[in-house]
């Protein structure tokens, strides 16, 4: 989609949000794309546990697409325990169903719960595992709750940045007040009944001039259909056919000999 | 997260879903990552309009991470009009707020609406624009409604696959019936009041043996606090301190001389 520069407010303007903890990531590039996904959804604080690459890392910087502020503030820890020591509530992301005695939430439910915890001044963190294998059981055991993303069980592979993106998206959405459905057209001044009647009267007069109506019965039925077509917003296929018939007749003119629609002669019927 | 092989059911087992139309993509790699994101969320039908690269494309295949079935079925069109000619309802994704007389939905609302349309046997499509600039006004004009993803307005850059991922995620979620919150621990047989009383009685007896209680008043208060601590699920910081005091006293033993907790001598008090 569209590329937008980060504003002056930066991360601090985003307000308190969950800390993202990447446990033993293997590729610097994934840290960059994760930082970008975080900033997309208002997450500013990133922590790494035992990265398998040196830091600073040129590939991470190249992949962050401008989310430098997240990388500049990032902290590195020797253990998961140290990385979460100052947090009150920790979620662990997992793709598998685990037989663990911990609450298991969808990303959506976790976003809503995390927001209410942060409103109560708790510090919240979200753990993400290494690229291929995710979090191991010892790492999962450190969390208060597990989070999973609903996904096609036959093809559940997500890369690290995509997992961060989806969990971050649900965090952002839990605080987003944009209406689900807007319609600018509905905000415009609607046509009055008189406007619509005038237009229909005009159209019916022209149709009579080209002998469009075969009988009085079909005339009433067609006028009713045309009226409804203009009163509704979306057109159906029969309406499209009807509209084509109308235009065709208008073009051919009143005597069906192809003399043209511009002539003013009035047909009988 | 975890890598899972695609099952035998493949795309056809996923059921009818929206068609994804990528308009004039510039990089083959993005078609591969978009195909992967589609399959993550049950979208099997991909169409390209005027790709800026040759097809078949090795980079697309390398980037699809196993979503070959989506690429193998993909169709290429010369125009957006041709790509959507057989569809009944078309959404156009946009990152910007547009002054267009079209309904504007969140991805979540579009997922729900698309599912009800598809249940009524309508064919639905979703247009995505080129990498840097998105859909132009002529392309947007072909859609019935616009879709946007709630995102940090100060950092709204999403790559093509991520846009497909988020819209696909909301499509999948609209049909997902997994509970938002599960707790395996809650499903286990809970301790009876008798179990809990027995444990507390045991603990209090041991604490009396090590002269933990200073007065009758504090004894009652501490026993009440210990009881509540075990009746609740989560521990507070004061509870942790109390538990540490209990353990410390048990370890030091009854006469405070460090003779060890194994001795059975009973203290007065």
Question: What does this protein structure show overall?
Answer:
The structure is a homodimer of 269-residue chains. Chain A has 269 residues and is an alpha/beta fold. Chain A contains 11 helices and 8 strands. Chain A has a 7-stranded parallel beta sheet. In chain A, strand 1, helix 1 and strand 2 form a beta-alpha-beta unit. In chain A, helix 5 packs across helix 7. The two termini of chain A are 57 Å apart.
What share of the residues of chain A lie within helices? 40-55%
**Quaternary status:** homodimer
Binned strand content of chain A: 5-15%
Shape of chain A: elongated
**Largest interchain contact:** A-B, 65 and 65 residues
The radius of gyration over CA of chain A amounts to 31 Å
Number of strands of chain A: 8
Offer a few descriptive terms.
homodimer; 269 residues; alpha/beta
Summed up:
Chain A is α/β, with parallel strands linked by helices and 269 residues long. The first copy, chain A, is built from eleven helices and eight strands.
Topology:
The structure is a homodimer of 269-residue chains.
Chain A: E1 19-23, H1 28-40, E2 46-49, H2 58-63, H3 68-73, E3 75-77, H4 80-83, E4 89-93, E5 103-106, H5 107-119, E6 124-128, H6 137-141, E7 145-148, H7 160-174, E8 181-183, H8 184-187, H9 193-209, H10 216-231, H11 237-252
Helix pairs in contact in A: 1-7, 5-7
